[in-house]
Amino acid sequence: MQNEKLNTNSIDTSELSFNDFKLIVINDYKIAYESRQASVLGRREVLTGKAKFGIFGDGKEVPQIAMAKAFKKGDWRSGYYRDQTFAFAAGISTIKEFFAQLYANPTEGADPFSGGRQMNCHFATKSINEDGSWNDLTEIKNSSSDISPTGGQMARLVGLAYASKLFRENKELDYLKHFSVNGNEVAFGTIGNASTSEGVFFEAINAAGVLQIPMAISIWDDAYGISVPAKFQTTKEDISEVLKGFQRADDAAGYEIYKVKGWDYPALCEVYEKAINVCRDEHVPVLIHVTELTQPQGHSTSGSHERYKSKDRLTWEAEHDCILKMREWMLESAIVTEEEIAELEKAAKILVRNAQKEAWNEFLDSMKSEQKQVVDLISAMAQNQPELSKISAQLASTADAQRREIFVAARKAIRVSAKNLSPERDELLNWYKNQEELNYDRYNSKLHTNGNESPENIQITDAVYDESSKMVDGREVLNACFNENFSRDPRLVAFGEDLGNIGDVNQGFAGLQAKYGELRVTDTGIREMTIMGQGIGLAMRGLKPIAEIQYLDYLIFALNVLSDDLASLSYRTKGIQKAPVIVRTRGHRLEGIWHSGSPISMLLGSLRGLHLCVPRNMTQAAGMYNTLFRADEPAVVIECLNGYRLKEKLPNNVGDFTVPLGKAEVLEEGNDITVVSYGSSLRIVQEAAEELATFGISVEIVDPQTLLPFDINHVCATSLKKTNKLLVVDEDVPGGASAYILQQILEDQKGYFHLDGQPKTLSAKAHRPPFGSDGDYFSKPSVDDVVEMIYKMMHDANSAKYPAIF
């Protein structure tokens, strides 16, 4: 329905006749009014129980119409959950799709933004196909997938805009015709006034000002953040006043800052046209502070704004509703008569109501056949087991049954009939098993892109050495790897704190900025959240970013962006968007509370959707990078902080050999005990194994290499079949990553059945390591700890052969 509306985005209004102008204005009002009706009806659908929850864009319709006029093919949006009118006006969403998402309809095509996985007003456009191949993004009005954390979109916005700068200034990227037209694309961001209090907002504003990128941020200011008024949110109660120092001047780069009332349709159209032209042509970031907005239905369906707004405020909001003010202006300007506008509003209500009914009926129709099947199958079983008839009758009488009710009934009938085997029961069981695969696709699939360029599809090439292969510092292996790949692929860019000029604090990028230029190897400010966002946005636009966080401990500063946005991107869009960012960092053993962290369990718990690589040395890290550079899925690579100056043999094919992700490796074969460890701790285990050999104890050492995924070929369980004993050595806190590794080996790989004794873990202490070598020794697993732990396990199994040490 919305796609049939008049396309006004490319019309030059200066050359319009009055009748043409009138047509455009009326069409704009029609979209705004339809959007308001969708909000009103959407709230009603939640309050009547058809939908679970709703947040709507009421009160922001008119400025979003103005913003949509300046939004062109190739542009990108990174917004938040108030932008439905913009989505309707830009043709990104229809009203029917809006309601399908409100109902969480997982049927293919119903909710094209998230496959029923996100709540309403979370939009996304299709960047990639099922096989992971890219669409032509220059022919799409692009919307990056929304997230609910209200400032989280800001980090990604920086990267989306930064990509335009790289496409414009780096002519080596000109061949990427499907991603940019000379960097002319603007990245549009939206945020509520209250969320400008968040740190990620200020990080992003500062980053964009430094980078001078075509980023246009609109602040929808309705003077509240849920129930909290602006006086508790913002200094001076005015964010554009706060940001005046960012205004550019003749002698200093910065922003163009605009302020406009959200109910003034002509002024909004003028400001957006002017601001976006500056942003697009000059690559200057712009900020548009849209004030005096309202929120007629309150923050969400979970409460009423009458509880916290004064009568005077509510009266003011009723008088300054942007749609009402636009209506008044249209009548005063003789653009439309009262009769014409009343007829338009009547038609809009009917159109929205019909779209809602159609979306609801399609949602129910997608499940009615399942409901009938299960009722019939359980009824057939009830012929021999009468107590089942109650289950089938209850399901049959459930009006508007959703899939949950259907499967509750099916599973209960299967449980209740466990002792009454019959062909009818087999039929229900077969139906249920067949549905499991369908439901996996509906609700659980696409954690990863799983396309043709998945890491698992990258050809494995072994490292090659010969007599002339040199022994070099580990950092030199990395440096050679990065150099070879940057020469091979112009899409590769790297950025981070101290990465450019000095080549990173451990010299992995030494000399590469001088060789490849500042656009490709770049220093950043200290701003971890937007370093990650920079990577996400670039990757969504077809580039291959390496976003560096200097130390693993500092990844905590960016964990919200990585977890909320990057890790969930493929899943929450059901595979229509991807961002193959490589997050490079360094960690594990060194010295001190802030520079020797291994908070792996934190990453394991929050970054499902990323690959987590924990190479034991720089050669393995280089092989993993080579794999990831050729793949299209995001990853974190944690280099060993104490390994940069250790000597390693430089492979002849340092830029080409690949290490498979998820493939564990047996480093040393043994017969008595299996020890699983990773990263820097492996050297500790290997040294301990030498001493244990003097006691006649043979240790098999397994390096999983990656923790996400973990040992997909079950090397650990195979080892346990031989040794029957298991120790996990880990630098994380007690019960941290070691608990995850145990779960994978004992439960997933069924390693429990091969044990002849209690599996053990040897981890760091429950605090960060104190400073100095002694601090490391007394807080993280040492060679002595490993030797004595393994010896004790052997003593417990055979005390005669291995008498107690202590």
Automatic annotation (TrEMBL):
Its cofactor is thiamine diphosphate. Its EC number is 1.2.4.4. It holds the Pfam family Transketolase_C. The keyword Oxidoreductase applies. InterPro entries: DH_E1, THDP-binding, Transketo_C/PFOR_II, Transketolase-like_Pyr-bd, Transketolase_C. The keyword Transport does not apply. It is an enzyme of class 1 (oxidoreductase). Residues 472-646 form the Transketolase-like pyrimidine-binding domain. It comes from the Bacteria. Keywords: Oxidoreductase, Thiamine pyrophosphate. E1 component of the 2-oxoglutarate dehydrogenase (OGDH) complex which catalyzes the decarboxylation of 2-oxoglutarate, the first step in the conversion of 2-oxoglutarate to succinyl-CoA and CO(2). PANTHER family: 2-OXOISOVALERATE DEHYDROGENASE SUBUNIT BETA, MITOCHONDRIAL, 2-OXOISOVALERATE DEHYDROGENASE SUBUNIT BETA-RELATED. This is 3-methyl-2-oxobutanoate dehydrogenase (2-methylpropanoyl-transferring). The lineage of its organism: Bacteria, Pseudomonadati, Bacteroidota, Sphingobacteriia, Sphingobacteriales.
